[in-house]
Amino acid sequence: MSCIQNAIRTERVSRDLQVAAVAVIALEVRPARLHHARHTAATMLLVLKIPTRAVMDVMGWSQASMTTRYQHVPKGGIGRHRDADGRTPLGGG
Q1: Would you call 47 exposed, middle or buried from its count of C-beta atoms within 10 A (0-12, 13-18, 19+)?
Q2: Quick one: 68 exposed, middle or buried, by C-beta within 10 A (0-12, 13-18, 19+)?
């Protein structure tokens, strides 16, 4: 039994969490931790070519070495991730 399924059966969790857990199971969302979102956010800032100092400020890092730990170069490299109209993933130019 997954921790999400267990949460549904536990009366101690809020009704909102139970509803969210049912949705996660129904939509077959893969298990992930919130920590994974930090890697995704840092990588998106890399793809968008945001300066390292700005990334450090947003992510709350005091050392630039954290960018190499959290930012992952996508397959195909940077700058190749544009749609047919030449826009970046978040709609930039």
Answers
A1: buried
A2: exposed
Which one of 17-21, 34-38, 80-84 scores highest in mean pLDDT? Answer: 34-38
Write down the residue that tokens 């490299």 correspond to: 77
Handedness of CA 34, 40, 44, 45 (dihedral sign): positive
Residue 27, both tokens: 């939509």
Sign of the CA dihedral running 24, 25, 30, 36: positive
For the chain, give the mean pLDDT: 79
Q: Which of 16, 78, 10, 15 is nearest to 1 (CA)?
A: 10
Are 40 and 8 contacting, i.e. CB atoms less than 8 angstroms apart? no
pLDDT computed for residue 82 by the predictor: 56
Question: What's the pLDDT band for 31 if we cut at 50, 70, 90?
Answer: confident
